[in-house]
Amino acid sequence: MHVSSAPRSGQLSVRGRLGYRQSNSLHAPRAFLSKLFSSSDEEDPKPIEMDQTALNPVAMPGKKQRDYTEVAYMTGRAKVVNKYFPTAIGIDDFLNRLEIALYAYGFNGDNSIAMVNLCRDEITVSLKNKIDHVFGSSFNTNGLGGVLTCGVTGVAAGLSHAPVSKGSGKERYVFFSFPHISVDARGEVGTISRPGRPGSSCACGALNKALIDIKVQGVDANCKIPGVHEPLDPEFTILKQRLARRLRYDGLDDGHVSNMNLVDLTKVAERTISDDLNYLISQTVDPQKADYAVVTGVQIHNWGTTFDDESPNLEFIAPAQAYVVVNGFKTQIDLNTMPSLTPRQIRILADTGNMDASQAGSKDDLVCNSTGSSTLREIDPPYLYRSKRENRRKREQAETYSELIQSEGLSPEIACPWPSWQTSLRKQSPQTEQEKGNSAIHFDSKFRTGEELDAMWSKLQSEYVSAGSNKSKSSDPSSPEDS
User: Fold this and answer.
1) Is residue 47 predicted with pLDDT exceeding 70?
2) CB contact burial 376-406 (16+ within 10 A = b; e otherwise)
3) CB of 298 within 8 A of CB of 315?
4) Same domain (yes/no): 56, 201
5) What are 423-445's pLDDT values in tens digits?
6) Are residues 208 and 316 in the same domain?
7) Is 32's pLDDT higher than 60?
8) Total structural domains in the chain?
9) Which stretches of 71-112 are assigned E, i.e. beta strand?
10) What percent of the chain has pLDDT over 90?
11) Picking from 83-87, 93-97, 266-270, 412-416, which range would have the lowest pLDDT averaged per residue?
């Protein structure tokens, strides 16, 4: 593959998914494109001097304090996330910048398929929905913690669904890969309040458990021979093995790992999964026959400490890799050099992205404002039946009904009879699981072996760990054989 650090031409042909030409050419502004790409030869511009009182409401007079409170609050929330992920920007801002950048290289929702790899956690759906809004229905390769277990067959299956250009015969793919983590409104790492569930949960739970296990069991103990995993827990054991091998590759022993936190391991997971993705791409994509883009990073949930509280639930993306391969030439993209859209533009695009009538009246209530380096917008309720505003509305309704019952002198029925048709649904008398037996297929997870076979297996595992520890760092960490 030839590598180029700059675009070969500012003129691009864009074809629609239906095969017709949408526009004859796209003349990307050269001044804009020159700032889009990383360059170590240019001096960084001097930062703009800002009046610190503009973002410090305490130092403002009364009226100005009220005018700037929202900006100050959103800036404060962004600062909480940027403490751990300095490049993080709002999720809407990120997707809008990315869409513009990829469009400059011929990728759009009509001619490309999105290959999305996220954690299986349902709270990652906010990112998937926004990707789908740009690129249409995506092909997912999700795994616990974002680990890629689909292999070349899974990736190839998604690629076979891509649109084909009638003019060039080319296909276009956009690969996304993001492990995730929670950093709540108060800066607590890993804690998240989920709708309908009391107390705090964890994100990412799989990565957090992997960190605990690796600390207790040790790095080498989790560097299993490739292909060895627990039959009843395949994804999680593969996740731990991939992380352990990456830690060993990076030269981190048990002493280093004992001092790691969830932020540290999430960044290790991003590097691991990104390398795995790049390796799978190298085994499945022919850059002479298809153009593709790769976008990786970390999805960050910056929600309120309680899901139903007044704090807006925000989502961030910390970009890591972003590059395109067009006609066999690879170009790195720096999304953080692109300007963010204005709050008004973000609102308009977000509103058109979800035309669900059930949310029509709630869009104007969602917070959207600038933080200086990015534009943040409160995420749409991921669960409409458990959204904050819906809960508040129901509480207000309950208070209203209580007052009406008293004022109108009603005598309500506290207990309602069980539906009579319920009995007709029963095929037989209810039984416990133990009574009816279990016909599930049992995995061959355990078997008896002799002492000689156990000793051979132990020796094989020991030699594998020892050989891996002695390998030079010149090997490719993305290759299963070398990791």
Assistant:
1) no
2) bbbbbbbeeeebbebbeeeeeeeeeeeeeee
3) no
4) yes
5) 666 666 666 655 555 555 554 54
6) yes
7) no
8) 2
9) 89-90
10) 45
11) 412-416
Q: Which two tokens stand for residue 378?
A: 């409160």
pLDDT at 384 over 60: no
Predicted local confidence at residue 39, as pLDDT: 46
- Is residue 459 domain-shared with residue 372, that is, in the same domain? no
Q: What is the mean pLDDT of the chain?
A: 78
- Which of the listed residues 359, 380, 401 is the one where a domain comes to its end? 380
Question: Is residue 88 situated within a structural domain?
Answer: yes
Q: How far apart are CA 64 and CA 36, in angstroms?
A: 36
Residue 193 belongs to a domain: yes
Does residue 108 lie in a domain region? Answer: yes
CB atoms within 10 A of CB 3: 11
Using the structure block, give the residue that is written with the tokens 């759906």: 125
* Per-residue pLDDT, 84: 96
- Residue 468's domain spans which residues? 451-482
Q: What angle, 0 to 180 degrees and rounded to 10, lies between the N-to-C axes of helices 125-135 and 343-353?
A: 90
**Same structural domain, 465 and 351:** no
Residue by residue, DSSP assigns 294-339 as EEEEEEEEE--SSTTSSSPPEEEEEEEEEEEEETTEEEE--GGGSP
Q: Are 242 and 276 in contact (CB under 8 A)?
A: yes
Co-location of 342 and 470 in the same domain: no
Exposure pattern of 124-143 as b/e (b: 16+ CB <10 Å)? bebbbebbbbbbeebbbbbb
- Residue 23, pLDDT score: 36
Strand ranges in 372-432 using DSSP code E only, listed in sequence order: 375-377
**Same domain as 192, residue 305:** yes
In a domain, 54, yes or no: yes
Residues 300 and 167 in one domain: yes
Domain co-membership, 455 together with 375:
no
Q: Is the dihedral of CA 65, 66, 70, 73 positive or negative?
A: positive
Among candidate residues 326, 346, 380, the one where a domain is terminated = 380
Burial class of residue 114 (count of CB atoms within 10 Å of its CB; 0-12, 13-18, 19+): buried
